[in-house]
Structures are given as structure tokens and as C-alpha cells.
Design goal:
Length: 417
């Protein structure tokens, strides 16, 4: 009995001593990538104010109401029911949670704009916002009063449209032939600005013109030409369609690839505080000074918080000639992007998503174009990153749309605790 009492006292003392020491909190693990669906490609991710996530993938559209853990393919509007893997689409969500979904049907046909106020259960559509032959379109719904649409009409000439009644009616503004290129990126608008920005790949036709990324400045509320300026970024052209993003302070960010000196291509970014008038270029993202990066897509959140998703192989080669290269999906993220030497965290999100060449546009077909012309990322109003990309099963050549949610925090600048 005495021995049992001593044992009990010692055990109680040990438990009491342990209770006096607070264990270190275990950080929440980053969710693993999930499969969104098996239909479509060129995934575009959008976040609604009510927390709903959407991914459009050509004429398919998916939604998630649990932070991206599970995805459901929406029935979609009737005009999107004629599926063609060559068609395009774009989505945007306005501050009132109205979802905008635009697409061409059939391939290179009419551009439609459809809206939904019940998370894609029912739709109101204008099936011929832009009639005739159309191609790559983008939509932006930044306010409850102004919504914008751009589409490449006749596969080369861009049409700009403006709605002031939440997508019910659209006013088109024709643009001059030969002025624009079809390889454009998303529309952006800095809060309080009357300009709409669009990143564009300009190849140039004159000897003195250098192929580079430029920004079109649309001024829909001014008289005269709808394009008030064309501003250069000083960056070379990316392989895929170009990307740009605005952070919470209205800083404009762009990303692309450039030769890295080892025979491959690195990820580089530039940012502008004044809608592309002046630029600051960053050093290449660490980990890409060797090997090859492609399909870069930039996202921005709070000032200095920037991320880039891209495909990467350690092989130093042009992506379209990478016969035996195996590609991973990478996410590079920094919280001091406006500094001269940002501190990056580079994460391999998913390895071995494709083996062989990755190419885009005309002359590119089969599983070499498994991801279409781009993959996307965004950083939402809570500084949570949402990433979406394509993965191929090399044994079957079947592809899936993948998604991952990443909530990072800035590294501590103080002494360790």
C-alpha cells in the first residue's frame, strides 16, 4: 500500500510539472493538392466575397464552398453545353457575389456573357455579346456599376465592351485592325482609376521593335480612342499567355521567363506603382537560375506579398524541346517583393505532373499542350493563395485540373521566442 502511494505521488508530481509547461502549438498543415475535375483545361481561379471559389476550364465551370477542399462541376448555361476543347472562357465575381462567365461557342464562334446570382445554379445569358468569329476573351467585374469584356474578334482584332448594369447590356467599342495581338492576359483596374489595364504579348513587325510584354491602357469613359496608352514593361515574352496582378495598394505586378545563362529559363518579375509608367525589375526567383521554368502566372495580395506559380524542370532546355524532361508545379512566394532583394520561399507543390515538351498556341497539339495556354493563381483579400494547374497521367495521357490552397505568414523579423 505504501509503495502504491509513493508511486501515485510521483506520478502526480510529474503530471503537475508537465502541466506547468505549455506545449508549442503545432502549425496547421498545408492542405494537399486536390482534383477539381477531369474536364477542360486552362483553369482560371476566382474568389467571391462570400468565400465561394470558382474555376473555369474552357466551357466547364467548377465551384467550392468549403475553401477548396471539395469541388463540384456546375451544370453551366445552356450555351456552354456544346463542349469543344479549343474554346476559351473567363470568369469574374463582382462585390455583390454575381458570377460572370464568358466563353465562345462553338470554337471561334460567338462570345457569350452569362451571369449568376446563386452560385451558378441558374444563369442569365446574352449569347451574342460579340457576334461572329471570336477567340480568347477576358472579363472583369470590379464594381457594382462597371463591368468589362475584351475578346479577340476574327482571331486577331480585339473588341472592348463595357456594361453599366451588371452585365445585362453591353456597349461595344471597336478597335483598329492590326492594333492588338490576340495573346493577351486578364483585365485589371486599380480602385479609383478610370483606366482598365491588360497585359499583352507584342511581337512587333518593325526591325526596331523588340518582342516584349506591354500593357494596354483602356479608357472607357473618355472620348476618342478606347486605348489611351501602350506602356512597355521591359520584360521579354513568356511562353504561355501573359499574367499580371494588382496588390491591395494598386501596385501592378507582371511575371515572365528569361534565359538564365545555364541554357534554361528563370522566373523574373517587375512591378509598377503608376499603372505601367515606371517599373522596377527584380532579380530572378531563386531556384530558377538553373533549370527551366515556364507557364508563369503572378498573384499579389498585401503590399509586398507576391507569388508565382510555374512548371519547372531541372533540365536546361527550351520547354517546347524538352523531350525527356519531367516537370513539377512550383510556387514561389515573398512578403517583401518591393525590396531590392526579396526573400522567397519556393515550394514544390506537385512533382511529376508531365514528362516531355510543353508548348502553346498554333503548331502545338496532343499531350504537349496538356495545359492549354496557361495555368493561374491568385491571392485573395485575406492573403490566402489559391493555385490551379493541370496534371497528366503519362500512362493514359488523361489530364486533371488540380487545386491547392496555401495560407502563409510573413517570416518573423524579431528574435526567436
Amino acid at each position: 500500500m505504501k509503495a502504491m502511494l509513493i508511486t501515485f505521488v510521483l506520478l502526480a508530481t510529474a503530471v503537475s510539472g508537465f502541466a506547468g509547461k505549455r506545449p508549442k502549438p503545432t502549425p496547421s498543415p498545408t492542405p494537399a493538392p486536390v482534383t477539381v475535375g477531369v474536364d477542360g483545361n486552362e483553369p482560371i481561379v476566382a474568389a467571391a466575397p462570400d468565400g465561394t471559389l470558382y474555376i473555369s476550364a474552357l466551357q466547364h465551370i467548377y465551384s467550392s464552398i468549403d475553401g477548396g477542399a471539395n469541388w463540384t462541376e456546375l451544370l453551366g448555361p445552356i450555351y456552354a453545353s456544346s463542349i469543344n476543347l479549343n474554346s476559351d472562357s473567363s470568369i469574374s465575381v463582382d462585390p455583390g457575389n454575381r458570377l460572370y462567365f464568358t466563353f465562345d461557342y462553338p470554337y471561334a464562334g460567338t462570345t457569350a456573357v452569362c451571369t449568376s446570382d446563386d452560385r451558378g445554379v441558374t444563369w442569365n445569358c446574352n449569347p451574342a455579346v460579340v457576334p461572329g468569329g471570336t477567340d480568347r476573351m477576358w472579363t472583369l467585374a470590379p464594381t457594382l456599376s462597371d463591368d468589362y469584356e475584351v475578346t479577340n474578334q476574327g482571331l486577331y482584332e480585339t473588341a472592348f465592351l463595357h456594361s453599366t448594369d451588371r452585365g445585362t447590356t453591353w456597349t461595344p467599342t471597336a478597335l483598329g485592325a492590326g492594333l492588338l495581338e490576340p495573346q493577351t492576359g486578364p483585365l485589371l483596374q486599380k480602385p479609383g482609376s478610370g483606366n482598365v489595364l491588360q497585359i499583352t504579348k507584342i511581337y512587333g513587325t518593325l526591325p526596331q521593335e523588340t518582342p516584349e510584354l506591354k500593357v494596354y491602357i483602356y479608357s472607357p469613359n473618355s472620348t476618342g480612342s478606347i486605348i489611351s496608352a501602350v506602356r512597355t514593361t521591359g520584360l521579354p515574352l513568356p511562353v504561355a499567355l501573359p499574367s499580371a496582378a494588382l496588390d491591395k495598394n494598386g501596385e501592378l505586378w507582371v511575371a515572365t521567363e528569361q534565359p538564365n545563362g545555364a541554357g534554361g529559363f528563370s522566373v523574373v518579375l517587375a512591378h509598377s506603382p503608376d499603372e505601367g509608367v515606371t517599373w522596377s525589375k527584380l532579380p530572378p526567383v531563386p531556384g530558377t537560375t538553373t533549370g527551366t521554368a515556364t507557364f508563369t502566372w503572378v498573384a499579389a495580395g498585401s503590399p509586398g506579398h507576391v507569388g508565382v506559380i510555374y512548371y519547372y524542370t531541372p533540365d536546361n532546355i527550351d520547354s517546347a524541346s524538352a523531350t525527356n524532361s519531367t516537370w513539377s508545379v512550383m510556387w514561389a512566394e515573398t512578403f517583401n517583393g518591393t525590396s531590392a532583394t526579396p526573400a522567397w520561399t519556393v515550394t514544390n507543390i506537385e512533382p511529376a505532373v508531365h514528362t516531355g515538351p510543353i508548348c502553346v498556341a498554333s503548331g502545338c497539339s496532343g499531350d504537349q499542350r496538356f495545359a492549354g495556354d496557361f495555368i493561374t493563381s491568385l491571392i485573395d483579400s485575406n492573403d490566402v493563395a489559391h493555385l490551379t494547374w493541370m496534371k497528366e497521367d503519362m500512362a493514359t495521357t488523361n489530364t486533371t485540373i488540380r487545386y491547392q490552397r496555401i495560407k502563409s505568414t510573413p517570416p518573423s523579423s524579431g528574435p526567436p521566442h
